[in-house]
Amino acid sequence: MNIVLLGGSNAGVKDGWAAQFASIAARHAVENRFLGAVGSLYGLMALLKMERESAALPDLIVFEYSLNDILLREAGVLQNDLVEDALDAVLNFCARHGVGLLFLCLEPRPLESGKPRSGAVERIQKLYAATARRRSVASLWLRDMIGEDLTPAHFQDENHLTTEIAGRVARIVAGRIEQGVAALPPVVEESGRFAYVDATQALVAGPCALRALTSRVFDGTFLEIARGGTSSWSGEGSLAALMLQSDDRSGVYSIRAGARVRRKTARSHMQEIVRNLMLLHYVAGAFPARGDVEIAMPADESALMSLPPDKGLLEASSIAPFDAQTLLINGVVFWRKAPLLARLRRLVARLL
């Protein structure tokens, strides 16, 4: 069986659950497509990329993004509706293509008392649980897999499991798969719509150039925008996220949609670990795409820095001089919310 692992940094740890699972499940073809500090929207983006490129699809997807969705929700950059729409779109993808799906639901290190550290844990877990129940998706939960009260001792740091606990998770995932994870029924439900607009489709002005970039976790054509450059991206709905590479020259940029304009930075504290970082940057504010969305590197520093900021996860200050800063962008995600009736059905499912 061909199995694709889509998950966050717990799936990328050297002796994490994904590495140990691949060893246990050696008779299967296992491909690990992890990327740290991104949530379910990135997992959906990876699936839509497979679809656009007519790539060979797996028999089964292990989807491990609940922990990162919790972190993004805690940071105030992720809406509940976006999580629900992304999960439904993932399920619709699997239903269209007859692919099996297993939700692997981890969570951050709890408080010393063992209680979840924030309300975001319960909110995101409820969304995953309701989605899994409503559409009969196989799911595994960290607290159930531990087999005892979850404590900080089960974690090596704030968000990553110890090698021992990761091994327990890997064995349980392998066992669940051996029991059989059926492909989703070919029923596609009405949900939000997502579109990925890549760098080759952007209209540009000023100092901009396309560059091919490759990394262990992501590769593609990126638009490099220097100071004074602008780019225009056409889509429907709202701007949800931008796929960027952050390096030593990454800097502050602006996003404009209609009368709404905000500044944002491409630098991340995660670059202390990965210097050239591929990362999906979520947009916290609403940027409705009633026309084109402009993403630019303004040359006027005082005007740019006077703009209201758009919040991000683990944002860091730029280290390059202002005039030398650039932006490397592979594409943007546009999102149209699910219709009201579909959202009401999901609300009822959560309350049951």
Summary keywords:
30% helix; Rossmann fold; alpha+beta; 2 domains; 352 residues; Jelly Rolls; 5-stranded parallel β-sheet; 9 helices
Characterization of the model:
The protein has helices spanning 17-24, 40-52, 66-74, 80-97, 119-135, 142-146, 163-179, 301-305, 340-351, and strands spanning 2-7, 29-32, 60-64, 100-105, 138-141, 193-198, 203-205, 208-214, 219-226, 230-233, 238-246, 252-257, 260-265, 277-282, 293-296, 326-336. The protein has 352 residues and is of the alpha+beta class. The protein has 2 domains: 2-179, Rossmann fold (3-Layer(aba) Sandwich); 193-336, Jelly Rolls, CATH 2.60.120. A hairpin with a 2-residue loop joins β12 and β13 (260-265). α1 (17-24) crosses α7 (163-179), α2 (40-52) packs parallel to α4 and α3 (66-74) packs across α5 (119-135). The protein is globular, with a radius of gyration of 20 Å. One of its GO terms (molecular function) is hydrolase activity, acting on ester bonds. InterPro entries: SGNH_hydro_sf.
